[in-house]
Amino acid sequence: MSGHRRTWFVVLPDNEAASAVAAGQGTAERRALRHPGGRPWIVGAWPADEEPVVVQAGPVALAVFGTADTDADRLLRSAGRIRDPYDVLALARELPGSFHLVATVRGTVVARGSLSGLRRLHLAELDGVPVLADRADTLAALTRRTPSLDRLALRLAHPLPHPLDRLPLWPGITPVPPHHAALLAPDRPARTLAHWQPPAPDRPRAEAATALGDALRRAVDARTHTGGLVAADLSGGLDSTPLCFLAARGPAELLTVTLGSSDPHHDDAAWADRAARHLPGERLVLPPDALPAMFAAVDTPGPQGDEPFAWTRTRARDEAVARLLAARGARTRISGEGGDEVLQVLPSYLRLLAARRPATAARHLRGHRARLRWGLSAALRALADARPYPAWLAHAADRLTHPGPPTTQLLGWGPEVRLAPWITPQAADLVREQLRAVPAAAAVPLAPEHAQHQVLSMVRHSAGAMRQLIEATAAEGTPYTVPFLDDHVIDACLAAEPDLRGTPFEYKPLLTAAVAPDVPEELLRRTGKGDFSPDAHQGLARHRPELAALAEDSALARAGLVDPQALRRVCLGLYPPGTSYAALDATLACEHWLRAHESAHVSVS
């Protein structure tokens, strides 16, 4: 089924100038929806199995693209109650799932994506007309913009901090913040409207667990309510296992999927076997030799859309599983990805805990010090660091090429951004300049509290990568879907008291309490997760020749961003100690993206 066409849509205001823009989208695959008055509203390309739910009630029309637990009848009833854009935003908050909601209300367009950024929106101006799209590259093609080498250099850094992590590779295209809706009124400039802010993390355990359990059930129901065959990862981990049990509650037929590891000490399989004994439906167990190794097909680019493809290391494996599931008739694959991001907090939660329960915070600090081997004075200095977020960004700019920072950084705003040792000084200068040039108005953390900011930052990194993987696996017939990144789930996790998502003494206590009514108690006793690092080491060793060939003829090297000899040494020798595989992933992703776009004459801007 490979070759499934790319989906996209563009949203237009309700005026005559926009009609001329729509007329320019005359491709054979184009689909079109119209404003109640008859003018073009949404144009794009989407297959029949991804048809949006569309309704109209007088001067109001609604379109839902993606996964939502609704149908035309229910959406039509909602449309009849809408009087203004705020009613649209209220409706979006009610619907479970992961979706874009686009409305036209008496001539004003309202559009929003998801809090995680999995469903994105971008804004640009074409011939004086403000237009929205779910993809930056769609707007780039419309407006004939050239990608920027400076912006691409940013993607070599890891982890790229907010707000630089959401900058499109084409200057002139503006991302709509995930917690904002975009409004297009006739003959007025586009604007955005905040529709969400992080909740105060003060919900006690029982209440927080109930809220998360309800949110997860609604999220999974949104994937299963239409029936059919649904695949679900059964890794044995504490994220995927509950989702399998929740999926088994619905009308869909369940197919669980377990991927093996080459590590003989990996205990995921044993936990998956225990869970499988309690689950209905068929089970598919794939040993490691039945699938491509990590880094397989690394010399073959994946889908190169509006940003570098982050899953280069595992793409061949994920696509192979998608083909196997499609052959069995599975319409989607439920994944536990995103669970770590929303359910495990970095130790910066101690800042909030110390203000509320000092004795408990002191006990937790002792636990973290034992686990992470911190000295007391170093930990206390990190906790006392009161630098605001702009100062933290400036400090990160000064330390891009330093050795890995101490783990006490986890007590602050998050992991400091780093560049791999094969990145050139020229590239480092480009990244450093952009970190320092973040406007004061944009250098605002995602939440006032360090711990909440870190959760949202990790969620958005995960969502950006998953968005690409969903596209790649959809091309093979069975796309991923990720309930943990739904709005209601994120909101429920952020509202919990700061020590409920994770402590040095309990593993994901909020999740285990939330799903206790649905999952056998013995399966909730797990206190860790499997590590796939041995699989990555073996895959790297097996595919060294392909990696070295990329380094020999590197587009990044031609652009002055990578030292090809240093990269080749990494590919053929020992991987640098203290350098995450994520650094190599980022380089490979940028390499493939630049090769795909070299004909676009990437500019320095």
Commentary on this structure:
- The protein is an alpha+beta fold and 605 residues long.
- Helix content is 40%, strand content 14%.
- The chain has 23 helices and 17 strands.
- It has helices at residues 16-23, 72-80, 85-94, 136-143, 149-154, 205-224, 240-248, 268-276, 315-327, 339-343, 349-356, 358-372, 376-384, 389-398, 425-436, 450-474, 487-495, 509-515, 533-542, 544-552, 555-558, 564-572, 581-597, and strands spanning 8-11, 31-34, 40-45, 53-57, 60-68, 97-105, 108-112, 122-126, 129-133, 174-175, 180-184, 191-194, 229-233, 253-259, 282-286, 333-334, 480-481.
- The strands form three sheets. Strands 2-3-1-9-8-10 form a six-stranded antiparallel sheet, with helices on one face. A six-stranded antiparallel sheet has the order 4-5-6-7-11-12.
- A hairpin with a 2-residue loop joins strand 6 (97-105) and strand 7.
- Helix 6 (205-224) packs across helix 18 (509-515) and helix 20 (544-552) packs antiparallel against helix 22.
- The chain is globular.
- It starts with 7 loop residues before the first strand and ends in an 8-residue tail after the last helix.
